Amino acid sequence: MPSQLVRDNLRTNKLPHIWCAGCSNGIAMRAISQAIENLGFDKKKVCIVSGIGCSSRTSGYMNYNTLHTTHGRAIAFATGVKLANPNLKVMVVTGDGDCSAIGGNHLIHAARRNIDITTIVFNNNIYGMTGGQFSPTTPMENYGTTAPYGNMEKPFDICNLAAAAGATYVARGTTYHVNPLVKLLEKAMIKKGFALVDVMSTCPTYYGRKNKKGTPAKMLKYFKDNTIDTKRVEKLSKEQLENKIIIGEFKNTDELEFTDKYLELIKGWEG
Amino acid sequence: MTKRTEIRLSGSGGQGLILAGIILADAAISEDKNAVQSQSYGPEARGGASKAEVIIDSNEIDFPKVGKADLLLVLTKESYTKYISSLKTNGTLIIDSAIDIDCGKSSFKIVKLPITDTAINRVGKSIVANIVALGAIQEITGIVDKSSLEEAVLKRVPKAMIGLNKKALEEGYNLAVKTS
Amino acid sequence: MKVKQIKLMQGNEACVEGALAAGMKFFGGYPITPSTEISEISALKLPRVGGKFIQMEDEIAGIAATIGASLTGLKSMTATSGPGFSLKQENIGYAMLAEIPCVIVDVQRGGPSTGMPTAPSQSDIMQAKWGTHGDHPVIALSPNSVSETFHLTIRAFNLAEKYRTPVFLMLDEVVAHMREKIEIPVASELEIFDRVRPEENDTKYMAYKVPANHLVPPMASFGDGFDFHVTGLMHDEFGFPSNDTDNAEKLMNRIMNKVNDNINDIVDYEESFIKDATTIVLAYGITARSAINAVKTARERGHKVGLFRPTTIWPSPEKQIKKLLKNVKKIIVAELNLGQYVLEIERIVAGQAEVFFLGKANGEIITPTEILTKIEEVI
């Protein structure tokens, strides 16, 4: 019998999900449900928009208004949904490839526009659904099926990218640190503006196997042992920070939000 | 009854020829005639050769483009070179007298008018050369009435510019009267 | 509008006026010549009627936002030209499979590639039909005047709403940019169709099930309280992904047949001088304006020539053309490309008449003289 949380937020008749055993996307999905539950959102007004990839199957399992779009375009579809009906609580669930490669342009422009969308990236450093090709967040020298000699490209830090582009809330969590992740998601969801949470997820099937990262449990333990909170970063040396995952809040500011501004314009023409 | 009349206004981008075309077409429509205004343009927003075309007809207008023009307005040398061959035999050329051309023996009627000079020195602003030209075209062709032309001009210019444009029209009429 | 108005108006402007008359409340687009006036006027007018305009970061995002907005219940439109039409194709296919109504205006310009941005063409006719991958239903309309642009934009919205599918309005640079007389009808005289929505208390709502006596599944909006999922994957009647082959076959047949079974409602055309014609010119959009002029002259010269002008390009007026073949022995297809729609006409005619082609792709329109010459050449 699934838990109350699952029954209240997921489409239990669509479970089990398609994700591999040991994949931590499910943890991330549960954390989203928990945050929505904690915040007491009207679920009839929650709209989850996703792109293409393992992460993006999330929309089909969540029991809200759900829209599974084309590869990379979730944020662009979500922009239309949000502007057309600003009463909806619009969230995008996307992956590292979906959001920062094919959809990179939409990401930076939604951030620049500061439209009230919460973007949650399931970042597993690989293209999982297509079979383990390297992505824009695969670390250098790591292997992928299209990086048989090791990845020669520098990765993106999606948090720094979103923050620089103008997002008003940016954070990173991991699927090991579940309770802190839920808190970060909650803060992102209540932010009036473009918010992004980069959720470190594990892909034991492709990324783990290609890079000899061990069992699913060991991959989660890696998160436990190798993360540093943004609050501690300043106190540490460059050497101490090498190969560490920085988690916590990267940015939290308040700025004028796009749909608010547009509604103001419409109001000026009323009556 | 107005027979299909094809008018080509040519000069350079930024001279307001498309607006002039729109005004002329609008005036014709207000008289219950049919009119089509079209234009061709290159990548330049200013400069280059620009043309606006207007067809006026009491009957329905099927083909909406000007082939051989009944009337050709030329405000620059470049547009003269480019479009003079598209003027009908027995058509009318209205050309700014500042343009130095060798008209020699021609099969069409030539009306040389100091359009730009009038706009600058008599009206006070070079940008109203297009309206001066419209005044002259009206006087010469009578294709639309003065009242509907004036109404169409005033509809499309900013309030602060109404006086200036009225004067430009007047000067255009006068220019043409003098030559005819 | 409370009283009808006579105005001088540009084609692109008439498109926006038609869209607003049809109830457009959302426009998502990206600037591209020669369609920009549609964006500009939408940006100006939509907020005044409580609608929304957004300039997106690229063409793909423009159609994506348009589809997203439609899912909240707003009548939505985007506008583009050839290069942008190419970029939008994947999401157009999405809207076709997910059955999301919207209007996509393509102001055709000289191609391929960047081509001649300010010159007219009709070379996206096959892109409209086959631009997106997979089999898919296509409705595409083509007006030949400013006034018809107004009316066909309304029709495009009506068909999109009625059949739950994207509809293409195929303009060309000349129709889009020329100004001519238009009579804007009184709003109450216009026939406006709104999508069928589920009953408020329908607890058994299935997002992709067609109830008895319905053309398409009623469409709920996000936020209305209905539980539904929308995906570009092959889906079951609830809207959830399904790899079942029987289900896929059923869904594909349904989305194709909602158009194919209603051709009489969707297809529209105009015939001139057709009654005793043994030769016809078939032309659409701006080329039909040259063609009618040529046909009139040919008639004056005693030739039994007529004009057939489809205003619905896709689906093609197959039945009507076949009917003409009783008398018509020669068909001249004139279009601003190097041979696109002529292929469809050849398919329909299937050797029952001679088909001749007159095309151009140099940035100029086909003149009446050129068509007349062709008529006299083939007669």
Could you characterize what this model shows?
The complex is a heterotrimer of chains A (271), B (180) and C (379). Chain A is an alpha/beta fold. Chain A has helices at 4-9, 25-39, 58-61, 74-84, 96-102, 104-113, 158-165, 178-190, 204-210, 216-225, 230-233, 238-241, 258-269, and strands at residues 46-50, 65-68, 89-95, 118-123, 126-127, 133-134, 169-174, 195-200, 227-229, 245-252. Chain A has a single domain, classed as Thiamin diphosphate (ThDP)-binding fold, Pyr/PP domains (Rossmann fold). An eight-stranded mixed β-sheet of chain A has the order 2-1-3-4-8-7-10-9, with helices on both faces. Chain A has a two-stranded antiparallel sheet with strand order 5-6. Chain B is of the alpha/beta class and 180 residues long. Helices cover 39% and strands 27% of the residues of chain B. Chain B is built from six helices and six strands; from the N terminus they run E-H-E-E-E-H-E-E-H-H-H-H. A six-stranded mixed β-sheet of chain B has the order 2-3-1-4-5-6, sandwiched between helices. In chain B, helix 3 packs across helix 6 (162-179). The longest helix of chain B has 18 residues, at 162-179. The model of chain B has no long low-confidence stretch (mean pLDDT 92). Chain C is an alpha/beta fold. Chain C folds into two domains: 5-189, 3-Layer(aba) Sandwich (Rossmann fold); 270-378, Rossmann fold (3-Layer(aba) Sandwich), CATH 3.40.50. Helices cover 37% and strands 22% of the residues of chain C. Chain C has helices spanning 11-22, 36-45, 59-70, 82-98, 125-130, 146-163, 173-177, 245-260, 263-266, 286-300, 318-324, 341-349, 368-378; strands spanning 5-10, 24-29, 52-55, 75-80, 102-110, 116-120, 140-141, 166-172, 179-184, 229-231, 269-272, 279-282, 305-310, 312-314, 330-335, 354-359. In chain C, the strands form three sheets. In chain C, strands 2, 3, 4, 5, 6, 7, 8 and 14 form an eight-stranded mixed β-sheet that branches. A five-stranded mixed β-sheet of chain C has the order 11-13-12-15-16, sandwiched between helices. In chain C, strand 7 (140-141), helix 6 and strand 8 (166-172) form a beta-alpha-beta unit. In chain C, helix 1 (11-22) crosses helix 2 and helix 3 packs parallel to helix 4. Classes of the chains: A alpha/beta (271), B alpha/beta (180), C alpha/beta (379). The interface between A and C is large, with 38 and 44 residues.
